[in-house]
User: Fold these one by one.
Assistant:
Number 1:
Amino acid sequence: MHITTNALVLRAVDYKESDKILTLLTQEQGVLTASARGCRKKGSAIAAGCQLLAWSEMVLYDYQGRWSVKEAATQRLFQGLRTDLERLALGCYFAEAAELLAVEGLPSPELLSLTLNSLHALDKMTDKPLPLVKAAFEWKALALAGYEPLIDGCAVCGVTPPEAPRFHLREGVLHCARCKTEVGEGISMPLSLQALSALDYILHGDPKRLFSFRLEGEELQQLSDTAEAYLHTQLERGFSTLDYYKSLNPGP
Ligand SMILES: [Zn+2]
């Protein structure tokens, strides 16, 4: 059986002498694994499309329950992020998170489009601070995967906006600093009103203009740190790609 599908390479691992095993986020089939035979040979027609973070139209064929890449016509390589170590590291983190949040065999067009938009931002929107792109991706990806935070008001007393607002990482809700004991055990982190308004924009604004908000300094750092901590708390794991990005020491 053959299928033709647009696919983003989320992971590429060298295999044998000239092959790769790819993890693909596809338009039609969600996330899947495919082998790319001979793609590391000189002159291979599928080499470009089988690179990490390449977006291609692929022809895949199914042989005894395993997918193989037959053709790969590259559409976007996101070249701008390949020449900058911090941007590349962040792109790899987006890919690792998308792989974890996607469901095998189930199309997730919103997650795919979020990941592509975020890679586009890393590639072309060089005026956007990296923590802004990172925070927008993290909050939106979590919301799409079923972890949408409740940010309407304090989850305990209902006040809008909460007084000295804090975000509870395990419960995924906002609360006033003074209402903390009522929310339950666990860590909560401060979010300023400006950071909250940016979060509201990320969650409820036009997804095509996801990065069209302004936030800087301490407030942007809060939004980015809280997103990351919320992701780690909900998924109960860390990300080697994120550790690497942070080791490069980018600031807001
Ligand atoms: Zn309250």
Number 2:
Amino acid sequence: MTLAQVQQFNLNMVLECQWCGHKRLMDAGKLLLKFPPEMTMKQLAERARCKNRGCPGRSGAEVLFRLGDRKDDWWPRVPIIRGR
Ligand SMILES: [Zn+2]
């Protein structure tokens, strides 16, 4: 999966922090202004830093996709719910 494909299929892309579980909705159009279209989700996750205050962000992040309205309509897995 590349950035270009995310935009092409108009996917809802969420970046989840592996440390604190903080989630951020990503805009493929905006990312494409900064990154090449052939950039993979793995490369993107490696570059991403958690913006949550107090989070060291050391564990990196993972890119998840919201595919539909149902609670489990996520790929490759549902997000982790932590804390509040
Ligand atoms: Zn975090």
Number 3:
Amino acid sequence: MAISGYDCSEHSLGWTYKVQSYYQASANITIEKDPLSEDVHADICVIGGGYTGLSTALYLAKNGIKVVVLEANKLASGASGANGGQVSGGMRRDQFYLEKTLGFTKAKTLWTIGENAKMHVNSLIDEYQIECDYKSGIAHPNHKQKFCDESKAYVDYMNQTYEYKDISYIDDSQMREMTGSDTYYGGSYDKSEAQLHPLNYALGIAKAALNLGVNIYENSRVISYKEQQGSMNVQCSKGSVIADRVVLACNGYLGALEKRLDAKILPMNNYIIATKPLSEETVRRINPRDIAFADSRFVVNYFRLSADKRLLFGGGENYSTSLSNRILPIVTKPLTVVYPFLKDVQIDYAWGGKLAITMNRLPYFKSLFGGKVLSAQGYSGQGVALASYAGKIIADKVCDSGDVFDVISNISIPSFPGGRLLRSPTMKIGMAYGAILDRI
Ligand SMILES: Cc1cc2nc3c(=O)[nH]c(=O)nc-3n(C[C@H](O)[C@H](O)[C@H](O)COP(=O)(O)OP(=O)(O)OC[C@H]3O[C@@H](n4cnc5c(N)ncnc54)[C@H](O)[C@@H]3O)c2cc1C
């Protein structure tokens, strides 16, 4: 579970905070669905009720396909209801990296997919009138001056070669004014990247899917699935779904359900805190333009203001099987590096979620059982746009009306070294090294 409930913990400064997502506390839609308790039939069975699963269900239903969604917990209780809410463009790695490793043509194709994903968020919000506090603009401040030349070169390159004009270079003093933090140097600003309330966005997609007749079951963990007499048999503890095809949309929560994907994706935990609503003066100081930030660190710090002017600050990660409840030490460390003057700020909520990364940070789409199972995961921390677009890509594949699924699944994703048992410790060492580089 991304959300650890309503536990209250006391801080040494005397205030209490909830080990619960702020998004859950400010959700504007309530959806309650019964668990699966019988054997049902559907054209497609979607496993996982986050952005990937819900948008797949929505687009399939739009095409008249009978869909059942099985969610192990509550809808969007995974990363989709817990994330930083940053709507980024392109892929998790920049075009310099993608061109170097994949060549210009594939890199350009991935850029276009990422941009379509970013714009697709707006179309969903507009079409289904999803109220999710959407606001434009993400700045990417550098925590080291030596990165600034590369940022400048990247902005020029994107402006010219990709004719992408939404990104601009921000110098040291402008960036310090934008962030209210003198730990940062220059960086880039992308005016068409955005931020939103991730849970309300997910629940808005769910509501639209329900209105189109999708059957959703919560608290219905899939234990196993197999091919049986030409169909797929998906088993929960108190019922089953017989479907023509299955869509696997479990990302960081996949666990042992499909071991064939193990080598390519690695789950990791990431954490966020929400402060109490800040004074107008502090808001003006730390974020006068009310935009979102994602910095240049290997373990990225990302932060923005909520609609009620709390600082939502994410940073710090680990790889343990379960999420930590001792979140404050993990997140306040980077928070006080960026904003030392907020070291005693009252924190009202602290929570975490699991995402899935791939070795080259590109999404991992895979067709299994001769196309009877389609799987999409590994958005590597960039799933607000990509995962909610994945649903359209999967539905297009099912309806034979698009080839983007094949384009993505043909991109080579290296395996993590160490196999299922050792990939986590091996990556821990790699990530710890990256975190050390952040500090020196
Ligand atoms: C703390 C955090 C911050 C992040 N910040 C950002 C950000 O700012 N911008 C961005 O673009 N991305 C961000 N991400 C990543 C983004 O949230 C994910 O990429 C995206 O939500 C993935 O959506 P999904 O639907 O594929 O997976 P999820 O939302 O994780 O959904 C998977 C679902 O599958 C269910 N499930 C698993 N196993 C089973 C089973 N056996 N049976 C039934 N159901 C099952 C789970 O319960 C879960 O609800 C962040 C992630 C985290 C954790």
